[in-house]
């Protein structure tokens, strides 16, 4: 029994290490960023750099008509946000702010666009963003590098 407890304790020590946490937070950043980046890519002309596909305006008028913003504003704002914040998140720069922005986007999508998607999707995005807001970018982030440089 002592061997099992000792093995368990060693496993917990490894899992709770700064290195393990940093790796887990990096994977979490990549996962959440990937969700929004892929969504942003559907809004731009393939092969272009943020050139919005004109069909998005019609999509926002019909499918996303619950949004409280006019598509003329909502489409560029959403397209920019779905590219900018995932990039910041991937690199771990302004992680808490970026995760907060994606959390706000998630809540807007939940409330105004897809209110039935809470359990299958939005609860996960919310949890992912919340962890990043609380814990930050972790060891493998530009935030951590900047903090180390500032501490010197």
Question: Can you characterise this structure?
Answer:
This protein has 152 residues and is mostly helical. Helix 2 crosses helix 6 and helix 3 crosses helix 4.
The residue fraction in helices comes out at over 70%
Class from helix and strand fractions: mainly alpha
Number of strands: 0
Q: Low-confidence parts lasting 5 or more residues at pLDDT below 50?
A: none
Give the helix tally: 7
Task: Please specify the SSE layout and strand pairing.
Elements: H1 2-15, H2 18-41, H3 55-62, H4 71-91, H5 95-113, H6 118-135, H7 142-151
Helix pairs in contact: 2-4, 2-6, 3-4, 4-5, 5-6
Keywords:
single chain, 152 residues, 7 helices, mainly alpha, 0% strand
Brief rundown of the structure:
With 152 residues, the chain is mainly alpha-helical. It is built from seven helices and no strands.
């Amino acid at each position: 029994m002592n061997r099992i407890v000792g093995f368990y304790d060693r496993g917990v020590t490894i899992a709770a290490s700064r290195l393990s946490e940093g790796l887990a937070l990096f994977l979490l950043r990549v996962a959440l960023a990937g969700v929004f980046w892929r969504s942003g890519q559907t809004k731009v002309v393939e092969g272009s750099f943020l050139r919005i596909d004109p069909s998005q305006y019609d999509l926002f008028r019909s499918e996303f008509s619950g949004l409280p913003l006019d598509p003329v504003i909502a489409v560029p704002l959403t397209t920019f946000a779905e590219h900018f914040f995932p990039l910041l998140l991937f690199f771990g720069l302004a992680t808490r702010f970026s995760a907060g922005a994606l959390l706000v986007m998630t809540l807007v999508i939940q409330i105004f666009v897809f209110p039935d998607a809470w359990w299958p999707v939005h609860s996960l995005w919310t949890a992912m963003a919340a962890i990043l807001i609380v814990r930050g970018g972790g060891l493998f982030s530009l935030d951590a590098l900047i903090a180390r440089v500032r501490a010197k």
